[in-house]
Amino acid sequence: MNILKVEGEKGRFFEINLEDTLQKKYELVRELRLSSKPRKEICAKYNYSRKTGNESLHAWKEKGWEGLKEKNRGPKSKSVRTQDIENRIVDIRFKNPENDMYDIAEMLKSEGYKISARSVGRVLSEHGITLKKTKKKPSPKSLKTKT
């Protein structure tokens, strides 16, 4: 366990568990607000950059404990595969079972949706629908180069 011992103003020591990010950020903010030491020095003590220290201080002022909690990173929702598109893919597949993921992707593109064949395949797999993995028909150009 990674523990940091800090001396308080009255000479008392207390321990900070550096593996607990919420406690670590709280102690950082507390010290930034109460100490007269330079911010860079305080942030370095907790292994944060000055920028992260300032962001944590601002988050504390704005939202309190909620501002210090770790936030989920990455996309918050599916950017291309919306529920509307997923429903449409499943609908096309059941109406035309002979179509593979490439055919369905082409149909959706002609309807104005922007989606790849691979995304269509993922949607079908997520819904438990087996799909034919046929490859696109080779273009006449590629046939000429093989002979």
What attributes does this structure have?
7% strand, two-stranded antiparallel ribbon, 147 residues
Number of helices: 8
Percent of residues in helices comes to: 40-55%
SSE pattern, N- to C-terminal: EEHHHHHHHH
Using the alpha-carbon principal axes, give the shape: rod-shaped
The low-confidence runs, each spanning 5 or more residues with pLDDT under 50, are none
How many domains?
2
Q: What is the average of the pLDDT values?
A: 83
Computed structural class: mainly alpha
Q: Specify the biggest β-sheet.
A: 2 strands, antiparallel
Number of strands: 2
Distance between the termini: 67 Å
Q: Into which percentage range does the β-strand content fall?
A: 5-15%
Arrangement of strands in the largest sheet: 1-2
Rg from Cα: 28 Å
Q: Which SSEs are present, and which pair or pack?
A:
Elements (H helix, E strand, L loop, with lengths): L2 E5 L5 E5 L3 H14 L4 H7 L4 H14 L1 H4 L14 H13 L5 H10 L6 H10 L13 H7 L1
Antiparallel strand pairs: 1-2
Question: Can you tell me about this structure?
Answer:
Helices cover 54% and strands 7% of the residues. A two-stranded antiparallel sheet has the order 1-2. The protein has 2 domains: 3-68; 83-131. The protein has 147 residues and is mainly alpha-helical. α1 (21-34) packs across α3 (50-63) and α6 crosses α7.
Condensed summary:
54% of the residues lie in helices and 7% in strands.
